[in-house]
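Bug #2210: token dump truncated for Amidohydrolase 2?
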Amino acid sequence: MLGLEHDFRIVDTRATLDPDESSVATHGRDISPERLEREMLQAGIVRAVASPGQRATGRSYLRANNAVARLSVDRPFVAFARLNGPRDSGTGPVSAVRNLRAERDDHHTRPDDVEQYSYDDRFHGFTLAPHVDGLPNEDVLARLEEADLPLFVHAGREFPPEAVETELLGYDFPVVLGSFGGYPLDADLMNETLDLLDDYDRLYVDTSAVRYREVLERGVLEHPDRVLFGSGAPDIHPNVGVMEILTLDVSEDLMARVLAKNPARLVPALAEGADV
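Reproduced locally. Full output below:
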């Protein structure tokens, strides 16, 4: 695919880097750091948040997180640590009963892990995919609040805006919902998420896999400072995500906010000239 031509500085808030054979086998893809970097450059992306892909059930993210941090050195990647937990992310009565007995296992994220990641200058935030990795315990979330680093959340039909509000938005740290909180392609959930932005000042959304021009334009026009560009690479070629923003019927100033200014304000390591 040919590289895009545009005059914008672009940073990406949602990219996955599979650092080892276990991650590759679990996710079914093998995208090297070199290829991911090359595809980013084709799209004109100068820096990207990177976190590990899904690990096999019962496996800790500690080694995968450290591998992503190592692979980010001398590359345009900003490493985020992926978290997990023992609590069921569902919203029904069965999940509530399960969570009464949920006990943390050795492979689950602990408060000390969050503290270590927070003070390790290799990591600049956290990612969480509750529908596959579970929800952390309350003591872990409290430690996230102390760290006050952004938490990027894979939200959608299996972890809808209602669950996000109940489980996460009571804590005082920045939360970024991937795909406008409506993955996969659920416009109703995306609009519900945009409604939540009116009530929570530290809630943000990223544009990965949104696909609906009307929904994207609504988010950018109504909440110009809280929409962040995310490509969803490597599942989606970053050229695709960039083109979706460049073809919106919004001003160049708003495009520039989404593509770089908003992400850099939330994640300073994405800013121009940042030392990472």
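Output looks complete on our side. The mean pLDDT is 92. Marking as cannot-reproduce; reopen if the truncation happens again.
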